[in-house]
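All the exercises in this workshop are built on plain-text protein records. Sequence and backbone structure share a record, each on its own labelled line. The question running through the whole workshop is how a given chain folds. The record below serves as our worked example for the rest of this section.
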Amino acid sequence: MNMMKSLQAERLIAKRYEERGYVVTLGPPPSRIPFPLGDHIPDILATKGSENILIEVKAPGARTDSNSYFRLDQQAQQHPGWQFMLVTVSDDELQQSASSLTSDLSVESIREILRNMDALVDDARMSGLVLPGLWMAYVFALRMLVLEEHVETDGYTDLSLINRAYSEGIISIEEYETARRLMTLRNQAVHSLKPTATPADCKLLRQMADKLLDRLPASLASAQVTEETSK
């Protein structure tokens, strides 16, 4: 149980940092870190520009190795651009994360969500608010399609899902590159007071979500998605 909670907590924190524009590596190898850590492997390395954060994630019920964390912090402080952070995840946060993946969605319910946003897609003032909702619909449709193709998704973040879909030939290089760009705009819309998304971006993402849904059986619900993500 503690191992499952730890994995879920790590993926939750990884997703948060990825949405803030960081490149996230789970269990980074020693070659990615410019100073020795002995046998210790940090949970997460989050990188953005010259900023590098080594993150240890403490899940509910997990033991705290204060001495190890102190050494990590001391090592990181000696290298410019590096820092150490201990992040604690509560049971409530894990439950909220799980519930966000177990909503009773189907192909038709996703289409209904998209239709409800259509009235706002052309309004440039609303692009920063509409794009995150469209992105959520796109990602959920992509996850359903990946699983429909019998491909396991071993990552929790949106980026890992897109990478896997492209590597398996489920989406083209053009869609992959477009999805990466739109993901950046989505992250900016969530975390910036001045998002740069445009109505054209929203229309494009809307079309991409539609094309994914067209490839899915209309009767497909989210049961297979929630079953896979709970493993």
